[in-house]
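Researcher: I'd like a structural prediction for the single chain below. Treat it as a standalone chain; there are no partners to consider.
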Amino acid sequence: MSLTAQSEKRMAMLPKVDLHVHLDGSVMPETILEMGRSQGISLPADSAEGLLPFIRAAEDCDSLQDYLGTFAFVLRFLQDGEALERVAFELVMQAAQERCLYMEVRFAPQLHTEKGLSLEAIIGHVISGLKRGEEAFGVTARVIVICMRHHDLTTNKAVAEAAAEWHGRGVAAIDLAGDEAGYPAHLFHELFSFAKQRRLPVTIHAGEAAGPANIYEAVVHLGASRVGHGVRVREDREVLELLKARRIPLEMCPVSNIQTKAVPEWTLYPLPEYLNEGLLVTVNTDNRTVSGTTLLHEYRMLMEHCGVTENQIADIIHNGLRAAFVEEAVKERLLEKFNNARLELGFM
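Model: Treating it as a single chain, here is the predicted structure.
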């Protein structure tokens, strides 16, 4: 169904939550243009619009691996503290423009060490940028630190250790991302046993480019209390029931899931089915720039193509706040603010 102007306005006014957004996938093209000039890095275009083919998923993107190829271009510009603080600040600004209450920004610090910054310093710069954004725009923001599937245990343990040093001071959780099909979840038991020892909350990219066995591994053996994407959980009834029983939220990212062919077309997108099953579903942007998306666009696509209602969107946002890796006092304050706005806007 198409959205009416009134519905569009109500959705725009609704406070929002983004639990799954990648820092390096959400850098504005205007910023890359400026950083290229200031850092002396040659660019293939001299306008922000001209840079889009290099930083946005192509229309004929046919896999997660193809989609991830856009990140290499951007990472060259994010190798010093000033750049990291800037893009973190600007990501909060982007979220604030659509009335986002809370966000968790994830990134892999080991991908930003080319100029000699330590992992701890890299995390600190991103947290500083987010805090400046909080002060300027009123959006509460936390960091999720990513371990990469293709990195060895020593490298990933160092990342987990750095995350633990910042836990409670801006870092909310740890994640595992990258080539899911090539590096399945069962390879990472030791790494996440170490994360458990350091009392780090865990979310895992799973059930995106590989099947529900990865979701089972993520929850049962890696300690995930949330699952990134999880679109393929419907392929295994036992895994679906596991998520229901343990109340494990899914961090779904509809636009990117269609782009990466995790789901081949909108008519097959499983979110309405998962809502009907009673799963805890959240909706997120994944990569604002790479996917060319916003939270409002994600909601719009679900309503137009999947029959999701306005009230279901409000429920999904509420799920996101309940699932947030944030201090309980902060969570309760954000929930109160959201619920008050929901009532004022007439959502059920």
